[in-house]
Amino acid sequence: MIANLRSFALKTISYLHALLKFFQAALLLMTQRYRSATLRFKIAFFVVILLTSTSFILSIITVQIMNNYILNEIIKRGESVGKSISAAAGYSLLSRDLLGLDNLVFKAKSSNSDMPYVAIIDPDMKTLVHSNEPMIGETIPVAQGRLYREAADGTIVKELPNPSGTIFEILCPIVFMKKSLGSVIIGMNRSVLLEAQRKVGNMILIVFGIIVILGIFASSLLASFLIKPIKELSAGVEELKHGTAKDPLRIYSQDELGRLTRNFNEMSALIADQRGKLAKYTRDLEEAYVSIVKVVAAAIDARDSYTHGHSARVAQLSLLIGKQIGLSEVELGDLEVACLFHDVGKIKTPDSILLKPGRLNQAEYQEMMQHAQYGAVILSWAPSLAKYIPSTRHHHEWHNGKGYPDGLIGNDIPLFAAIISIADAFDAMTSDRPYRKGRFEEEALREIARMSGTQFRPYLVGVFLELMEKNRVQDTPIPVAEAV
């Protein structure tokens, strides 16, 4: 194996010599023809460097594989010696032939210089025979080290730290006629046998270390050719993405990167022009969209003169809660639309139920409860409105799971639905109905506080009550949207 490694190292040095000549010629050619060179040539040069680096990595992998191979061979040899001793020691243990056991240990130790110790112990870990005589009769403690592997026959290999180098301790059980008579313990010092391998490994690492240094130098040179236009393009893309592009990008060469930069400048100018137009169209569409939503919400509320403007008031109260808990501007916009849509399912509720002057009977109440599911179905018809389905479907869920339609519990209820449920209940309690007058705000707030943790999420109730109290102390009325 050592001879093979030496041959490999010599071939590597020869390859390095040829590679150095190639680098010299390539660098000269690259310097002379940079501005007119094609991107393909530059990429080919970079690939050469990449291959060199890959070769270095492969050399490291090769050294590691050799390390593992030699290590496994050392351990296999130790296991083989241990099993040979255990096979021959069974009869001697039964006959208490300590001289025969000592002979087995002596032969194993003398024929293997990398074995610092060989011992035979009884089942109680007491040393019967040891290559180091003072250890005979001593009780050997269980070795504390990293378990390397354990075979099905009970052979155990552990890696133990040692001042002179790593030792692998191999324990082979002695079994005679299915009876455990003790164990053979062998120490294997890998440092001696790995010395030659380390020398060859160091040679390989030195050779490929030189290649890496050359690779770094060549990569730096290549980067000076490519990094400027690439950075320019990267910065241009970032500016274009954020809409801050001003001046056209500088063109450094006439190769493919130069043509790409020129095309990017033209595209950037076109996008900037279109961006301004699209921004205006977007604002117009958003305004039209919100207006349509408000009209739809007003149309729903208008079916019942007693709840006219209900959705708009729920939106105002919900937005107060949303701002207080730190929702973003985008989330607040979605929350407002969700509020305007929360009762859209009442479109399917018959007038005989929706406009009934008295209290609803059980059947009528069951039909009224269907409006949450009806609303979810209606919104599902438009994919762009799908994000408002959870708040529409679940704004009548209760925190304790006794709401409808799905009996969700606690934080399983979507945040928007939990916010809307509080605002919806407050507005419902303070609004007049044909069969009752609306409650005073203080009474409605006490009821909401009472239902905290039962119907409403406690944290949101606390936020809502704090907001209402703050506005009461400051004598500032809660803003209510005008009916659309």
From TrEMBL:
<dbReference type="InterPro" id="IPR037522">
    <property type="entry name" value="HD_GYP_dom"/>
</dbReference>
<dbReference type="InterPro" id="IPR003660">
    <property type="entry name" value="HAMP_dom"/>
</dbReference>
<feature type="domain" description="HAMP">
    <location>
        <begin position="224"/>
        <end position="276"/>
    </location>
</feature>
<feature type="domain" description="HD-GYP">
    <location>
        <begin position="285"/>
        <end position="480"/>
    </location>
</feature>
<keyword id="KW-0472">Membrane</keyword>
<keyword id="KW-1133">Transmembrane helix</keyword>
<dbReference type="InterPro" id="IPR003607">
    <property type="entry name" value="HD/PDEase_dom"/>
</dbReference>
<dbReference type="GO" id="GO:0005886">
    <property type="term" value="C:plasma membrane"/>
</dbReference>
<feature type="transmembrane region" description="Helical">
    <location>
        <begin position="200"/>
        <end position="227"/>
    </location>
</feature>
<protein>
    <submittedName>
        <fullName>HD domain / HAMP domain protein</fullName>
    </submittedName>
</protein>
<dbReference type="GO" id="GO:0007165">
    <property type="term" value="P:signal transduction"/>
</dbReference>
<dbReference type="InterPro" id="IPR029151">
    <property type="entry name" value="Sensor-like_sf"/>
</dbReference>
<feature type="transmembrane region" description="Helical">
    <location>
        <begin position="12"/>
        <end position="31"/>
    </location>
</feature>
<feature type="transmembrane region" description="Helical">
    <location>
        <begin position="43"/>
        <end position="66"/>
    </location>
</feature>
<keyword id="KW-0812">Transmembrane</keyword>
<dbReference type="Pfam" id="PF13487">
    <property type="entry name" value="HD_5"/>
</dbReference>
<dbReference type="Pfam" id="PF00672">
    <property type="entry name" value="HAMP"/>
</dbReference>
